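Tutorial handout. Part one gives the primary structure; part two gives the three-dimensional structure as C-alpha cells.
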Amino acid sequence: MVPLTPGDANLEVCIQTVSGDLNSDCHAFGIIRFDVEKADKGLASSTVFLSLATVGSLIGFMVMLVRKDELPPLPILAAIILMTILFIPTAISQPNLGSTELIDDHARVFDTELYDENMQSMMVSELFDGKDALIIAIALPGTQNVVDQATELNKTLDLIADEVSVVHVLSGMDASATDVASMKANYNLTWATYVDIDESFTRSSPNGTSDSILVLDKSMRVVYSNAPSASSEEIISAVESINNGGSSSAWSYFSLIFGPGLFLFFLALPREEYEVLEEPLPIGMYWGAIIAASGAGIVLVNLPLLIATLAPIPSNTLFWVDVAMLVWLLEMSIVTARRGTPFEADFVGAAIHKLFPKNFQDWRGVEDMKRDTLIGIWMGWFGWFAFPALFSQGVGAAILSGVSGIFFGSFGFILIILLGGATVLLLRIIASLGGSISRLFGEYGFESYAQYSGWCIVPLALWSIGNTILSMLEIGIL
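Part two.
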C-alpha cells in the first residue's frame, strides 16, 4: 500500500455500462476531490527533545561530579558517555508529545456512554453483559462496510454466541440516533446498535474514528483490531486467546536485551570475583538469587496496576493509576540520581538476601542483591513502556475470564516473572564475560552507573507523564 502525499488529492472514477459504446473505455467519468491529512506528529518531537534532554543529563551529572570532587577515572567517564549513546534510542522511541501514537494496538479504551436510537445511554463496560469478550463493529454513517462486518459477525455468533457480546457503534460525520434507527432497518441487524455522539469512545481505539472491528477483554483493553472489517476466524481466535493471556508473550522481556538492556549492561557489571567456597552451594542458587531479586523488581513495578485491574473499580480509574505510576517512576529516578538506588530496591533486595542461607549471604553481599533488584526495577519500567498491556491483559484479563483463566493467568504471571528475571541473569552473564576488565569497570563505576541511570530516566518520566495527561485530555477523561 503506497501512502498518499498530504494535501489536496483527486480520485478519478471511470464507469463502464453494458449498453455503452464498446469502443469507449469510459461511459461515465467523474472526479472526487478530497484532502489527505498530515500524520499526527504531536506537539513536540521525542527525537529532538529527549535526545537533548539525555545529553543535558550527561552534562548535569558531570557538573555534579566535578562540584563534589568525585570525578571517576577516564575509562569510567567513557563508559558513562557510552551509556548516554545507548540510552538515546530508547528515549526517542517514545511517542511524540501529544500524538496518537500513545494509543497502541492493545490500548485501554475509554468507558464512556453510548446511545441507542431512543437516546437511552449505556456504558461500554455494561455491554459485556456477563460475557468474556465484547466485539464492537465501528462504522461511519453511510458506509458500505457494514455489510462485510455484519456477515462476519453473524458467522462468529453461530460458533461462539455464548462467549461474546456483539454491538455496532456508529461514530463520526455527526452521527446521530436517527442514523442508528436507519442502520438497523437497512441491514436487519440482530444485535444492539449505538451511536458515539462525541467520538469519545472511538478516539481511544487503535483505528480511531473509522470503520473497524474491535475485540475487548474485561480489562477494557483491545485484544484485536482490524480495519475496515475482520474475518470470523480472526475474531474467534482473538476471543479464544483471552483466557491464556491474549497476544502477550511471557518472553517479552528478552526483546529488551538489545534496546534498554544495552543501557543496563553497565549496571550489570560485576564488582569483584567470587571465591570458591569450601562447602559448595546448592546447584543453581547463584543464578536463582539473581532471578529472584530481579524478578521481584519487575513485580514491584507491575503489581499495583495488576491489582487495580483485578479490583472492582471503574476501568477509567486505571488511567489515573497510570499517572500515579509514572509519578512513582519520577520519584524513583530522582532518588536514584541522588543516592544510587531507590529506597524500594534497597528494601526488597535486602529482604530477599535474608531469605538465603548464611553461607550464601556471606559469599554474595547484600549490595549485589540490591543491584539485581534495581536492574529488575528498570527492566520492569522499560517493559511498561514497550508492552504496557503485558500484565493487565496477559495476567489480569485472563484471571477475570473464569476458572480456566485463573489457572492460565496465575501460571502466566509466574512465567513472566521467571523469564523477566532470566533476562537480567543473561545481562549479568554477558557483563561478566570480560573477566578482570569487566570487574575493573564494575568496581570503579558501581555507584556512578547507578546514579547516572536515574539522571537519564528523569526526562523520560516527565515526558511520559505529560503524554499520558495529554492523552487523557484528548479522549475526554480530563
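Part three, for discussion. The two ends are 37 Å apart (CA to CA). The chain has a mean pLDDT of 89.
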